[in-house]
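In full, the data.
>
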Amino acid sequence: MRRTLLCVQAIVLACVVLAIAATPGMSSAATCEKWAGKVVSLQGTVEAKIAGGAEWQPVKLNNTYCPGDTLRTGRRSRAEVALQNHPLLRLDENSAITFGGMKDERTSLVDMLSGAALFFSRVTRNLEVRTATVNAGVEGTEFFIKVEEDKTSLSIFEGKVLASNEAGSLAVTTGQSAVAEKGKAPVAAVVVRPRDAVQWALYYPPVIYAPPADLKEDSNDPRFYTQRASQLLTVGRVDEAIADIERAQKLDPKNSDALSLQSIIAVTQNEKGKALDLAQKAVEADPKSPTARIALSYAQQADFNLQGALNSLNEAVKLDPKNALAWARLAELQQSFGELDKSLDSAKKAAALSPDLSRTQTVLGFAYLTQVNTREAIKAFDKAIGLDQADPLPHLGLGLAKIREGYLEEGRRELEVAIGLDPDNGLMRSYLGKAYFEEKRDDLAKGQYDMAKSLDPNDP
């Protein structure tokens, strides 16, 4: 079971009853009168070109764009965009789209020019994606699309898409894939593990607190490769990260940080036994490493050994009392045990040690939320999002806090953003299902519960 975000467990008891209280709120105002897309998360190099313009300009969080504007991501970069009538799309590196505006006042149009994207659309017939080889008419769904030269590939995770071009059409439904080549009708394709195509979209929680101040690029220093691997995971480049981890292990076969990173990858990809074995080896390789203990806590948590995870984190803060990441993880575990005052103290300790680390602000937000101090919680979550726009957890917390304040629609939108940032997280999908249920959208709620169960069948 994927339990990368342990403080969520505490919120199940401490916040869901408080949070789903529910009066729809006002949506935020647009900065463009008829904007077509709003950037809700970005990492790395993301640029935009205004319709009719020639220059590419840097994109900032919450920028809005109009029909005809083009957005692109660079190497090792990602972005998530909310469309005008509520669909969401997550762009992979080296991808580009043009916003097409609205069709029939209800359907957002997107021209996918290159690269890959993950789309989320919860309303029937409110999204159409066009490529050079196929048009994808969406009927309330979640799907992946990849545009290559003279070919477009589709995989449907939930719902239905009508793939069509001048040569023909094909209905593609949940669990199915299709390919459309130039000049040919779309045809069904067999993809054994379609979700492998969106590994770039997953969130890998941090375990290495901070790089050594004197660390420089050195092909003979395993620390250089483990640090770079850690940074690559923050932008979803898991294959590149694995290559660096292997380079580190060639230099030092028992490198504890390398083993810790391998364990976190296994946790995120739901390989529980492998994750635990790797984390235990990391501790054996360096019993004094707080990084290894943090990694072990995630693996133990995934294995339902919460007491073991708590013990690992208590040991981590003893080994390094100034490790803010260890204190933040300890606060998460304490919330899971209902130790809410201790959790708040640990979260404040983490934030004091490293106020500009997103994870410390996130756990502080959850600690405030368990105290029903939603005003301070929202401040902390907002700051965390500004520090790390790819972390789904502060969006989850912000969504719960807004729902607690009576803004169900705004809160639910934040939960949808969180899912876009970590699509394989079953527990967060169950939260989104609760929000849909409160909005009396039972079919959507059931879809999220079903997907949560398929992603995490052992979650009670």
